[in-house]
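Lab notebook, page 48
Experiment: co-folding of the full assembly
Goal: obtain a model of how the components sit together before planning crosslinking
Operator: M.T.
Materials (sequences as entered):
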Amino acid sequence: MMETLMISLILIPLIAAAITFVLPVKWRGVCAFLAALVNFLIAVLLFRKETTIIFPWIGWGIDFALRLYHFSGFIILAVSFFSLLISLYSLEFLKNKSSARQFYGFFLLALSFVNGAVLANHLVTLLFFWEGLLLTIYGLIAIGGKQAFKTATKSFIIVGASDLCMMAGIILTGYIAKTLIIQDIHLGLDRLGSLAFILLIIGAIAKAGSMPFHTWIPDAAQDSPLPFMAFFPAALEKLLGIYFLTRITLDMFKLDSHNSLSVVLMAVGAITILLAVMMALVQKDYKRLLSYHAISQVGYMILGIGTCLPAGIIGGIFHMLNNAVYKCGLFLTAGTVEKQAGTTDLDQLGGLRSTMPVTFFCFLVTAASISGVPPFNGFFSKELIYDAALERGKIFYLAALIGSFFTAASFLKLGHAAFCDKPRREDKGIKEAPLSMLIPMIILALTCVFFGVFNRIPINDFIQPILGRASENHNFAGWPSSLPLVLITIAVLAAALIHHYAAAKIKGSGLKAADHIHHAPVLSAIYRWAEKKYFDPYELGVKLVNWIAGLLSGIDKSIDWFYDFFTVKAACGCSMIIRKAHAGYYIIYVVWALTGALLVTLFAIK
Amino acid sequence: MNKEQALFLLVFLPLIGAAILPLIDRASVKLRNLTAFTLVFASFLLSAFILPTVIGGREINIILNLPLGFNFILTADILAVFMAMVSSFISAIIILYSFEYISHYENQREYYFMVVLFLGAMMGLVFAANLILLYVFWEITAITSWRLIGFFREKQHVLRADKAFLVTVFGALVMLLGFIKLHSETGSFDLAAIKAAVKAHSISNLAIGLILTGILAKSATLPLHTWLPDAGVAPSPVTALLHAAVLVKIGVYVFARLFIATMPLGALWHAIFPVIIGLSALVSAGAALVETDLKRIIAYSTVSQIAFIFLGFSMGNEIGIAGGLLYILMHGLGKAGLFLCAGIIEQRTKTKDITQMGGLIHVMPVTAISFLFCAFSVMAIPPFGGFFSKYMVIAGTLQAGHLAIAGIFLFGALLTLMYLFRTFNMIFLGEMNKVPVSGSSPLMVFCVALFAFLSLAGGCFIQYPNRIVAAAVQQMTAKPL
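Observation: model returned without errors.
Model output:
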């Protein structure tokens, strides 16, 4: 029974996806919503159940294996929760949009693949679903508009490259461990093990959207249909990437805090936090600003898990959950603004507080959560990460703290510009969004409060079992244990608030509150280059690859030249010489015949 | 009908039948087309008919002793039947596609004669268990492909057909020298006898090197590969047949037949061969990223993918060999689909230059989606079939301990993603540069969609082809080398 239910988590969305592609367009959304609802109910039923299943698949140790246990059940529940809300939201949002034709099919396909990847208990099964997600990413971005395919290709190639690394990592891991069943893999980090570990980590953090695999996300924010952003980069990819990262560092390899790879992981996290948040600060578009935060927040999770301390890991996983909640909520507010006001360009928005009060309320709660304001959920997970980061090194703590300052600053700017400033454009009767769009946002906002105030429930019931014995005697729930750290956090937030109001007062508008950072002497040049994509690893990589391709093509051309020119000339030259020998002199032919006869005789004698 | 008769028929039906086609042509063009298709499809059905027997572990032999110590042996084992099924099936669909495609051109009579003869020679080659017999069929394929590449009879085309012929025949002659050397070392051209002799003493590296030259020339591997992109001037079904499904797979097949099933490759070539194919994979993938001629891009892609098949075969472990065999199937399906798509695009836009195309997805959506599906399979994206074969080949490489080689091929795989996307985007997406002429044939689009569907189905139902592959690998490796 439980096995059937577990497989139906993969099959039901898959079949529903096939159905939506042939249904009349107006029924597609409803079909997707119903499938997401059934999926959610099954996930609830399966929560806290344990079962495994294995089918022979290809042979040579490659099987189709799934495993439901507390961790995967928890992620499955979260995934189904977000997909339910987003399918409800999309019903109204995508009405009368051309992208609605294919959106639901890809949406359900993605749900099926994500469920499969989370449940996978065999590395090849995992890779099958994990890489299959490339198709849905490509499809979901490409339906966004006429030029969206460029971004879709970019995301496909970035994620595809990281998936190739992961494939190599999986093969290496299987080779070292002599098994591909994830449950049975427990490896040390020797030389080959470290290589496998790094390759797997690349796959995991690239999926989560960490630097340097992030640059498609801001582009996708502008090109893709918005529910994709709320669904993929905000929620699903974080859940999936961090879930796998945790499993690599905790189960498959025993990464401990003495290993230098732990420092590398923390450094990646810290750099991602800082650089992405600095980019977010200067954005002038609602969705693009959020997308940089979608990158920056991954940094906290990687930093937390990279510390290899129970507090950090729990904080990282909790932050993953919280981030999915508030980031999904934030993207949905962006969608509501886009739908009702017709744009997400902050230069043309303003004053939405009075016309869209419910959206403003949801924005307020989710923005407070992401900024780490107590008592919302983001505060508690960040405190856990701070705690662990400080224990591993002041520099990491400092990076996280600076990240918090700018996160708060950029959300103050965003909220101020979109909701509180005077309208920058003639108001054409902007109204509050319809109920089916508000409900998902309200639910997400309430979840932010709930996970904050009652953080005992997610931490003790969902997350701590993942760590098992290592965290048994600790209590991570409730109010943070270290008062000085809380005070510092509050001081930083207050500083961000004061900074924002002072700057807004001087510049006269909330939108321009970060302009002095944008136009600071050295920074302005860096920002300009960044906007021109000089630092985009993808652009640089493509340039490098094209250069290499040119070189390789040159080699190819020269080989071809050898055939087309050299051999032809050589053959002509030879025949020329031989032709000259055939001059028609009787005596020459006689000499040849005699020489030949002599050689044959010599050969025969010998 | 007993199995021996079936084996005999499946080789000689297309070989002899090809000669009758021009006669039928005088009666009815339609009948000729149908006969051509039936002959090839019959080969497929007959191979499927003998499949259960060979899977059961029995080999089917037809032996005819000739004077001077030569003999005529056809042997059907699982590897041969698998290869025969793959190539006859893909060829049958390609012939179906040609009904419409070739109807616009002259010399149809010769076209069908050559194609069916070619397939017959391929069948003979696959089942040949004697090196001289193998060589004869090998050369028949070279002659037919020479005529087919120069099908349009333009001066440039004929020169390129000559180039393809000269390079492959040069390789074949070198290979023949290798066979003779092999004969002097083992005393036989008979594969079974060679296999028995190899147990006693090893084969010289020279003989293996000579044979490898022929194989590399036929399978278009660096540095003997440049004839393949040049041969893109042929009609599209021909390029699909030669570059994707059959001709280039000959070398790969003979490699498996000789160096896995019959004798070991030897330590020296075991070290050198992966380097050659690694370079081949990289150079051709790089060239594919630079070229702007649609068919040349796909042809370079073939050169690059063939290297993956060789890689799987040369690693000497089961998963690699199985991956290589699956690769033959999946690459055949995907690449044939790509070439046939190219044919539709070429007929409708009257150009092969991808920089002059764009936005075609709006006028030919089915072709576009089919192209994308086939491309996904070649890129190895799950759930398409190519994923499993590429995974298994790379797994075989890493298990053999070749980390650097695996890295090179992974980079090659990344380039594959890039050049196929570049091609797809430039042809089908963006602004429409040139409005194509109307009138695509439903039959041609159907064939293309069929390949796309099979690429997807091949991944979703991987266990069925895999069963044959697994049995073949067991048979090839189980016997003592």
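Interpretation: Chain A has 23 helices and two strands.
Next step: discuss with group before ordering constructs.
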